[in-house]
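Residues determine shape. Next comes a sample protein:
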Amino acid sequence: MAKEKKAKEIDVESLDSELAAARTLEEGKGSKFVKAAAIVAFCMTLFHIVTGFRGQFNYVTQRGVHLAFGITIVLLTMPLYDHFFGKKFAGNKAFQVICRVIDLALVAGVWAAVFIAKDEVAHISDRLGVVTPMATLAGALLLLIVLEATRRCLGWIMPILAMVFIAYALAGPYLPEAIMHKGYSMERICKFLATDLDGIFGTTMSVSATVIFMFVMFGAFLEKSGCSQFINDMAFSLTGKIRSGPALSAVVASALMGTINGSAVANVVGTGTFTIPLMKSRGYKSPFAAGVEAVASTGGQILPPVMGSGAFLMVAFTNEPYIAIVICAVIPALLYFIGAATAVVSQSEIADIELVDPKDIPKTKDVFKSGWIYLVIIGVLIYCLLVAQLSPLYSALIATASVPLVMLFDRKQKRFTIKDIAPSMVKAGFSSMTIVMGCACAGIVVAMTALTGIGVVFGDMMIKAAGGNLFLSLVFTAIACVILGMGLPTTSAYVIAASILAPSLVKLGLPLLTAHLFVFYFACLSAITPPVALAAYAGAGLAKTDPMATAVEACKLGFAGFIAPFAFCYSPALMLKGDLFEIITVCLSALIGTIVISMGFQGWLLWKLSYLERLLFVAGGMLMFIPGSVTDVAGLAVILLVILINAKKWRRVKAPAA
């Protein structure tokens, strides 16, 4: 009972800064600072639209202005007095004034630092590569303000991690021999952060300031148009008539919204407010209902074509074409969702879920008639990305522009009008805060990694600890990714893990893209992996249940996400590489393994499985995942043996189940 009471008190919005920002925007309409932040957010979106169409500025200007806009919104909407000793002095008016003055000084400081860095980079060739002391000032300002803004936006984890890496850069000569380096002064670090291409304005901020923001903007416009409701209704209309319909609709709807949204927690809240109560009302247990939503929302980030912006970061890190990344990610993502769907069907039979009253199920024809216009918008995005193969930036920009244009034909319902453009632009700016600050702080970590070479050192240490064994190295990498991803946005977790861990996997012979996809999977899965499983916590908050029980259910539902990355590291056919026969056999084997393991975890396959049968099914399914004809035959033999032994049970339930 104590646990249940604690679960009910979970503040879901506190788990995700995007949700907190949305609440601030809604509740703080009368505040001058929130109004000012809304104007800044509008200008931020306008800046990206204009530069998207006319062309980007130089790297410091484009990325620096993007960062300054994001920090300004954070400092205006998350005042210091609300983030100082747990709001202990927040009620004191004099203290509020002092804090606001400090916040405004920090806003002025970040803009000054950006323009100083811009000037230094612009004249660096004239000075033969030498920068002035002003670069040190710019770097120091950026470092301090980024750490503080990230602390307010994402909590302490990211800033502490960044400070640990800075301390490592400073203390190089005094460290043990295994991790020793020559060391760098604070002046050198600040100059590097402000002016170097591997500094704060490096790859991560580049992707954030171009592609990712465009997709955040597209998501804001799409959400304002009511597309999420259409996706929920369509998924429910297609699956509602079957016993597992409510849970399957949650899987489908959350997956589709999650691939665009990019935030597992925000997506849990966005779709879970409808799907979780519906599942509970049909008879699903609360932890299972919350786990389904958490798994589907998390899986949206590994689902092509958008992959929650992760694919675009991979393009920057690997220099692989976008279409190549999407192709490689298709089968593992499908296995993930097939595993979750199979678990939902199995659990529906075990729990004897009630069928939904047909009167409560929307008709597919009516839903399609009302919302077909959204398919045109999504079709524009897919066409631009996969058919015309435009750059992700232009694809997202064109898709965003298509929202108000296409919705002009929605004359009867008027779900999106010209008046909605400005609020959507403001929402895009507010929604980008998490990504901007996460990428900026991750940029500090990546900068220190590049400056000190710790990534190579750490990789060598990991390879040595694993004895050069690829499997053990993959296990260590997976654990490290989950730990690094605790409490962090997916983009930040992936950037840090990729810069430190992926190079060691490449050293062991994995292709660069495979190594990055492996790292990305486990960075995403940290959202459902105990003990810090933010997506599971969000789902538990909505379901009023225990977060740890939810996280356990989520891991059982999303098990394929933990297995598939290991499988495609050993069998490239799962990434659609190789000859056609090999691809078909490997994918078919993995599909059978996924379904069987899922049924083994849930305990149902046309009859309720005993513990021994469940264990045999899981073992057989695992063998199907291991590359090789011998293991495939052995796994299939185990599965068929259990089925044949229980042939009488199968015949007895065959007719009712059908």
